[in-house]
Amino acid sequence: MGKNDKIHNHFSSVIFKNTGALVLFFYIMVSFVLEHIGIGEPVESKVDIKISLLVITIYLIVKFALDINAWRKTYIYFDDNSVVMEKNTINSKKVTISLNNIANINIDRTILSAIIGVRKVKIDTNASGTAAAPEMEVYLKREKAVQFQNAITMAMAGETPDLFNEKKVTKSSIKKCIRHCVLSGDIASAFFMGVVFTGGFGIVMNSEADKKVLAGILLILLGSVALVLIGMISFVIKSVLAYYDFTSYREGNNIFIKYGLFNKKSYKIAVDKISALKIVRPPLGIIFKQEYVEIICVGIGDEEKEKSLILLCDTHNNICDNLKELLPELYRDDIEIRTCKRAKKLYGTSLAMYVLLITTALIVAKIFVEMKYIIVVGFAALIILIYIIGSTVLKCKESGCDLREKLVVTSLGGYTRNVTIVPYEKVEHLEIEQGPLKRFAKVQSATLYIKSGSILSGIVNTPIISEEDVDRLRLGYKKTYTGKA
Amino acid sequence: MNNFEKLEKKALYSMYISTIIATVIGVGVLSGIIFISPLHKYKIAIILYAVIVGLAVMNVIISPVFRYNRYRYRMDEESIETISGYIFVTHKIVPIERIQNLEVNQGPFDRYFGVANVNVTTGGGDVDISYISKANADAIAETLKVKINQLVISNKEQEGAENGEK
Q: Which among A295, A331, A325, A235 has a CA at the least distance from the CA of A450?
């Protein structure tokens, strides 16, 4: 309970403050429209209706701008034994009400607030007298208003209110939701479509075939690109609708997740049922420094295309802060991913094999393909090569493990990086695999099978790790079911 | 590889039979594709077909021996472990307390050779102990059943004690 646990008024407070002006604006607006379409009686007034409309519009714009600014800079928080509302605009104001002086806390509901789902919490003090206006008015969502009222009542009774310090709500704005949907989208298909289109375009441009046939091929290529673009846009729109108003918070030993615009979904997940935590950095997250978080457990993520998200795309620091609040049992902020040197050599070997394969393909292409198409084929090969090199570099840099006493942290690097945190006690069974190359390099890889909503999400693969680390993993796991190492 | 058991010789024959059947089906499908379609007119396709068939025949001869020699299994008080594979070796560890379902399977050829497969299911998926003798499979299944029942009873008693304390 401190200054850091601050809340804002609900945004609708800006509308409530200007209800009178808004009613006047709509009255003049309707009169103006009716007069113009000839339904209403012309208003006999000395003041021109257009000027009135202009004045009220300017007033509303200025007033809204000032009020939004004031709303952004107004916070309510508990400080020692007081409730404080602090406004940091040009005219700063700080209202402090001692908990001892609070006479009553009421929740007000009007028709408009009922429609919006907002309640006004009014705090009256003993000092204000019966006729005076309430000392503090706070606009909050219905549930939050009740929680705020309870928190103050608890604080007055000398108990620790759980509104701010135990239940930190992570709510995603529409901007954040759109950002998440764009960043987590499938850009690989767009990338390859771009490559195919460029290659196809190059071939068409260099070809001497019938112009009608070439125009047809070009049309098919453009159509395919358009289809991919439409697919991507529709994915973003669908995702925005699905994850609209994404909210996650923790209450006691449960995590609550709510989201959706038309199809609203609400989950209550017991923390001890969560098998693993997965921090995903999507490909675009490399550029925009963003990542999102999924949980793996039974009952969530089992529907088609549904991800078991608990946090939408955000910066690494924000994700860490939120995870500390949401899942301190699983999250560790001192994760140290150690990459195995022998694994790096193996990644290098596979890169060399790819390079050899592409070079051979190019040599074969030079024999069979006409010279004028070689540039196009070479360009395609170069792009594939850059893609593979990028992927290998990221794998070498980011793949690894951090084996703790009770947790396994695996990081699978690449364009999409998955960091999965699994407690040993949640591993149902373990599989260790070694092929001839891995045997030669004295490395292995393991698969942890955990309980989950879908078969695929229940399989957690470790990257290539040293045989010594695999032994540590095996012994760590053995300790959970035997009680001894 | 302490305390790991090897498979009996009859498992090798069963492995041979299952590999031969799988190869015959695979080669049959491939032959169908090559010789029904116009692909057989291309020399390169025939060469590739011959290489694949040759590798498949080699696989029939070699793989059962390797798989048989590599295969190990072990069951103790706490877990079941299997080591299997041919080119890629897999070591599976299943704690007995995590086993939810138990199944003993025997196909017609397995029955002929007197071998069986024990399939155990955990919350994370299935694990097989394959090609073990039927008597051994029944003994493993029975032991596992007893151990799982004991675990369930002790867990219930523990829960009851915890609830009583509350």
A: A295
